[in-house]
Design goal:
Number of strands: 4
Distance between the termini: 29 Å
Strand content: 15-25%
Radius of gyration: 16 Å
Number of domains: 1
Number of helices: 3
Strand order of the largest sheet: 1-2-4-3
Shape: globular
Order of helices and strands: HEEHEEH
Largest sheet: 4 strands, antiparallel
Structural class: alpha+beta
């Protein structure tokens, strides 16, 4: 018995999307980096306000200046979904 068909698969809701995917929908030119489970996002106009309104753990976000490009970035702890996907599949 088939539990679901291809017709039942719909576009991911915002609850199913990673934070990175959600940011890219609003800020298509966003630049990302990561270290282990932490997601880094280069600061751009409106990003902090969007995160404050749309990300439950906004108060955990910290800022830093990249030693590579000398630009401000945000560090979002535990938000690198690729890390967690790899971790859970191994």
């Amino acid at each position: 018995m088939e539990l679901f068909s291809a017709f039942d698969i719909k576009e991911k809701s915002s609850m199913d999307k990673s934070l990175k995917e959600q940011i890219l929908e609003v800020f298509p030119d966003a630049e990302f980096g990561h270290h282990e489970s932490d997601l880094y996002v280069k600061v751009q106009p409106g990003l902090r306000e969007w995160l404050k309104s749309n990300y439950q753990f906004y108060t955990n976000i910290t800022g830093f200046v990249s030693q590579i490009d000398k630009k401000p970035w945000l560090s979002i702890p535990f938000a690198n979904q690729d890390f967690w996907d790899r971790k859970l599949s191994s």
